[in-house]
Write a structure and sequence with these properties.
This protein has 158 residues and is of the alpha+beta class. It has one domain. It contains four helices and eight strands, in the order αββαββββαβαβ. Strands 1, 2, 3, 4, 5, 6, 7 and 8 form an eight-stranded mixed sheet that branches. Strand 4 and strand 5 form a beta hairpin.
Protein backbone atom coordinates (compact mmCIF):
# COMPACT_ATOMS: atom_id res chain seq x y z
CA UNK A 1 0.00 0.00 0.00
CA UNK A 2 2.93 2.36 0.53
CA UNK A 3 6.35 2.83 -0.90
CA UNK A 4 8.89 0.19 0.08
CA UNK A 5 9.28 -0.04 3.83
CA UNK A 6 12.42 -0.34 5.87
CA UNK A 7 12.02 -4.11 6.17
CA UNK A 8 10.01 -6.95 4.72
CA UNK A 9 6.62 -6.94 6.43
CA UNK A 10 5.24 -10.10 7.98
CA UNK A 11 2.72 -12.04 5.95
CA UNK A 12 -1.01 -11.26 6.32
CA UNK A 13 -1.56 -14.59 8.09
CA UNK A 14 0.69 -13.46 10.93
CA UNK A 15 -0.89 -9.99 11.03
CA UNK A 16 -4.31 -11.63 11.47
CA UNK A 17 -3.06 -13.06 14.81
CA UNK A 18 -1.84 -9.70 16.13
CA UNK A 19 -4.00 -7.73 18.55
CA UNK A 20 -4.35 -3.96 18.84
CA UNK A 21 -5.96 -1.56 21.27
CA UNK A 22 -6.37 2.19 21.20
CA UNK A 23 -6.43 4.76 23.95
CA UNK A 24 -5.68 8.39 24.72
CA UNK A 25 -2.84 9.52 26.96
CA UNK A 26 -3.87 12.70 28.75
CA UNK A 27 -1.50 14.97 30.63
CA UNK A 28 -2.78 18.36 31.67
CA UNK A 29 -4.53 19.91 28.69
CA UNK A 30 -2.69 17.72 26.16
CA UNK A 31 -3.98 14.50 24.67
CA UNK A 32 -2.20 11.96 22.47
CA UNK A 33 -3.93 9.09 20.70
CA UNK A 34 -2.19 5.76 21.18
CA UNK A 35 -2.19 2.39 19.44
CA UNK A 36 -0.82 -0.65 21.25
CA UNK A 37 0.15 -3.65 19.10
CA UNK A 38 0.73 -6.96 20.83
CA UNK A 39 0.45 -10.68 20.24
CA UNK A 40 -1.27 -13.11 22.61
CA UNK A 41 1.41 -15.75 22.09
CA UNK A 42 1.41 -19.07 20.26
CA UNK A 43 -2.12 -20.34 19.69
CA UNK A 44 -1.83 -22.41 16.53
CA UNK A 45 0.11 -25.54 15.64
CA UNK A 46 2.55 -23.65 13.41
CA UNK A 47 3.28 -20.94 16.02
CA UNK A 48 6.04 -21.02 18.60
CA UNK A 49 7.34 -18.40 20.99
CA UNK A 50 10.22 -17.85 18.57
CA UNK A 51 8.01 -17.40 15.47
CA UNK A 52 5.82 -14.93 17.34
CA UNK A 53 8.85 -12.91 18.49
CA UNK A 54 10.28 -12.95 14.96
CA UNK A 55 6.97 -11.83 13.44
CA UNK A 56 6.73 -8.95 15.90
CA UNK A 57 10.33 -7.95 15.14
CA UNK A 58 9.52 -8.01 11.41
CA UNK A 59 6.45 -5.86 11.99
CA UNK A 60 8.42 -3.39 14.08
CA UNK A 61 11.11 -3.12 11.42
CA UNK A 62 8.56 -2.78 8.59
CA UNK A 63 6.85 0.06 10.48
CA UNK A 64 10.16 1.80 11.18
CA UNK A 65 9.65 1.82 14.96
CA UNK A 66 12.44 2.81 17.32
CA UNK A 67 13.42 1.33 20.66
CA UNK A 68 11.29 2.54 23.54
CA UNK A 69 14.08 4.13 25.59
CA UNK A 70 14.91 6.61 22.80
CA UNK A 71 12.91 9.39 21.20
CA UNK A 72 10.11 7.92 19.06
CA UNK A 73 10.70 8.28 15.31
CA UNK A 74 8.04 9.71 13.04
CA UNK A 75 6.98 6.72 10.96
CA UNK A 76 4.77 8.61 8.50
CA UNK A 77 1.18 8.68 7.35
CA UNK A 78 0.28 5.09 8.14
CA UNK A 79 -3.15 5.45 9.79
CA UNK A 80 -6.19 4.99 7.59
CA UNK A 81 -9.70 5.73 8.83
CA UNK A 82 -12.66 5.13 6.50
CA UNK A 83 -16.17 5.15 7.96
CA UNK A 84 -16.20 1.96 10.02
CA UNK A 85 -12.64 0.81 9.30
CA UNK A 86 -9.50 1.76 11.18
CA UNK A 87 -6.24 0.41 9.83
CA UNK A 88 -2.48 0.73 9.96
CA UNK A 89 -0.43 0.46 6.80
CA UNK A 90 2.40 -1.88 7.77
CA UNK A 91 4.14 -1.87 4.40
CA UNK A 92 2.53 -4.85 2.69
CA UNK A 93 1.79 -4.13 -0.96
CA UNK A 94 -1.79 -5.47 -0.78
CA UNK A 95 -2.96 -5.47 2.84
CA UNK A 96 -3.28 -3.20 5.87
CA UNK A 97 -3.69 -4.19 9.52
CA UNK A 98 -7.20 -3.38 10.70
CA UNK A 99 -7.94 -2.74 14.35
CA UNK A 100 -11.12 -2.14 16.36
CA UNK A 101 -12.71 1.22 15.64
CA UNK A 102 -11.40 3.68 18.25
CA UNK A 103 -13.45 6.08 20.35
CA UNK A 104 -14.81 9.26 18.79
CA UNK A 105 -12.31 11.30 20.84
CA UNK A 106 -9.42 9.25 19.42
CA UNK A 107 -10.75 9.62 15.88
CA UNK A 108 -11.17 13.39 16.31
CA UNK A 109 -7.62 13.84 17.58
CA UNK A 110 -6.17 11.89 14.65
CA UNK A 111 -8.43 13.64 12.13
CA UNK A 112 -7.17 17.09 13.18
CA UNK A 113 -3.56 16.00 12.72
CA UNK A 114 -2.45 14.77 16.13
CA UNK A 115 0.33 12.24 16.00
CA UNK A 116 -0.61 8.78 17.23
CA UNK A 117 1.96 7.04 19.38
CA UNK A 118 2.28 3.44 18.16
CA UNK A 119 3.64 0.96 20.72
CA UNK A 120 4.66 -2.61 19.91
CA UNK A 121 5.87 -5.27 22.32
CA UNK A 122 7.77 -8.36 21.23
CA UNK A 123 6.64 -10.48 24.15
CA UNK A 124 3.09 -11.85 24.31
CA UNK A 125 0.27 -10.14 26.19
CA UNK A 126 -2.80 -12.23 26.95
CA UNK A 127 -6.07 -11.36 25.24
CA UNK A 128 -8.32 -9.81 27.85
CA UNK A 129 -5.45 -8.41 29.92
CA UNK A 130 -6.59 -5.68 32.29
CA UNK A 131 -5.33 -2.13 31.98
CA UNK A 132 -3.07 -2.72 34.99
CA UNK A 133 -1.67 -5.93 33.44
CA UNK A 134 -1.06 -4.13 30.13
CA UNK A 135 0.70 -1.26 31.96
CA UNK A 136 2.93 -3.72 33.84
CA UNK A 137 3.65 -5.57 30.58
CA UNK A 138 4.67 -2.31 28.85
CA UNK A 139 6.94 -1.28 31.72
CA UNK A 140 8.57 -4.74 31.83
CA UNK A 141 8.98 -4.75 28.04
CA UNK A 142 10.62 -1.31 28.17
CA UNK A 143 13.01 -2.48 30.90
CA UNK A 144 13.99 -5.53 28.77
CA UNK A 145 14.44 -3.50 25.56
CA UNK A 146 11.40 -5.19 23.99
CA UNK A 147 9.15 -2.15 23.59
CA UNK A 148 9.25 -0.33 20.27
CA UNK A 149 7.49 2.90 19.37
CA UNK A 150 6.96 5.61 16.82
CA UNK A 151 4.55 8.36 15.85
CA UNK A 152 2.13 7.85 12.96
CA UNK A 153 -0.25 10.27 11.29
CA UNK A 154 -3.46 9.89 9.34
CA UNK A 155 -3.44 9.35 5.60
CA UNK A 156 -6.48 10.76 3.87
CA UNK A 157 -7.18 7.77 1.62
CA UNK A 158 -6.21 4.14 1.07
Amino acid sequence: MTSPSIGIPPNPGFIATVTAATGIHRRGNKAMPQLLITHPGPRYRNETHETVMEGMRQLSTALGLGIGNQDPPVIGRKLVIERTVAALDYGHDQYVMSFPLPSQDWLTLVAVGAGCRVYLTFTPLAIGATRAEADTHLRDSLARGQLMWGTAFIRRRF
